[in-house]
Design a protein that fits this description.
The protein has 15 helices and no strands. The chain has a single domain, classed as ABC transporter involved in vitamin B12 uptake, BtuC, CATH 1.10.3470.10. By secondary structure, the protein is an all-alpha fold. It starts with a helix and ends with a helix. The longest helix is centred in the first third of the chain and has 36 residues. The protein is globular, with a radius of gyration of 20 Å. The chain is 77% helix and 0% strand.
Length: 333
């Protein structure tokens, strides 16, 4: 039964991937897709649109959807909280603060990074995420209580957001616009030269997550049960934090903040397969996350919108917010 569901998810993801390539402000005939991707026989404009814009954007959607979904699953397992997401550690806020310091100050080191264009923003976001990650890791060694660690992570996020607001108050309109556009999130911000770096970061986070699936399953029944099975809870906690930082921090650095995917997709996977077993839920979350983000990307650039592209965060929120409300209502029952 699970194999059939996985097969349908793979087919759905592939269909949405192809649809994301052919649909948009300029619709590309499906019969032109193979020749545009693999030969020079199609129209030059179709080939340019596919290879330079839509294909890297679709690949980014697949990787970001899978990475954010697994990061959300890890956070919900660690804190045993159905509403925990990849941004709960404040890593995303740290990435945002790094970009804010670069764009809104635009002087000294910030000016040097800003002159590097997209790579400069990525570097700034990675540095900001690393700083917050180190603070969270140091805290995790001193705080044995998960609830306290959750609150500390949220506080780091609030501090980062507060500092960003202060910087916005003193910035000029031109630099402020660069930062605000980054906060919308953009799958098209990842170019071909960035793709290998993003793929390696996500692959490391996913490999780390899959390597500890047995320990994650033990955590589902509580830390005392996990310790009784010989699981080093502190080590598992540290692995989860690092894997989440790699996945959420890396994706945020390259594509900007993308909300709600990490919170909602693990619930979709559990509901579809009716299990909490990470051996099933983790790959299912990857497929569901990729499919959902591909769908959101298509909705963000529906044909007939005059070339206007909606912020990806707006579209994911339209899917994610009702799901969060449903989770709250279900839990209250």
């Amino acid at each position: 039964m699970h194999r059939l569901k996985f097969l349908w998810l793979v087919v759905l993801t592939l269909v949405l991937f192809v649809a994301d390539l052919v649909l948009g402000s300029v619709s590309i005939p499906l019969k032109e897709l193979p020749s545009a991707l693999f030969s020079n026989e199609s129209e030059a404009v179709y080939r340019e649109i596919l290879l330079q814009f839509r294909l890297p954007k679709a690949l980014t959607a697949v990787m970001a959807g899978a990475g954010l979904s697994v990061a959300g699953l890890l956070m919900q397992t660690l804190f045993r909280n159905p509403l925990a997401g990849p941004d709960v550690l404040g890593v995303n806020a740290g990435a945002g603060l790094g970009v804010a310091l670069t764009t809104l100050l635009a002087s000294g080191a910030g000016g040097v990074l800003l002159s590097l264009g997209s790579w400069g923003l990525v570097t700034a976001a990675i540095l900001g995420a690393i700083v917050v990650l180190l603070l969270v890791l140091l805290t995790s060694f001193r705080v044995p209580d998960l609830v306290t660690l959750l609150i500390v992570g949220m506080m780091f996020g609030y501090i980062g957001s507060a500092l960003v607001s202060v910087l916005q108050s003193f910035s000029n309109p031109d630099t402020l616009k660069i930062f605000i556009v980054w906060t919308f999130g953009s799958l098209s911000a990842v170019s071909w030269d960035m793709m290998p770096v993003l793929a390696v970061v996500i692959a490391l986070g996913l490999l780390l997550s899959f390597a500890w699936i047995k320990s994650l399953n033990a955590l589902l029944l509580g830390e005392s049960y996990a310790i009784g099975l010989g699981v080093s809870v502190k080590r598992v906690r540290w692995v989860i934090l690092v894997a989440t930082a790699l996945l959420a921090g890396g994706i945020t650095a390259f594509a900007g903040p993308i909300t709600f995917i990490g919170i909602t997709v693990p619930h979709m996977a559990r509901g579809l397969f009716r299990t909490w077993d990470h051996r099933i839920v983790m790959p299912a979350s990857m497929l569901c996350g990729s499919a959902l983000l591909l769908l959101c990307d298509m909705l963000a650039q529906l044909p007939g919108m005059g070339g206007t592209v909606l912020p990806i965060n707006s579209v994911t929120a339209l899917f994610g917010a009702p799901m969060v409300i449903w989770i709250l209502l279900k839990n209250n029952k």
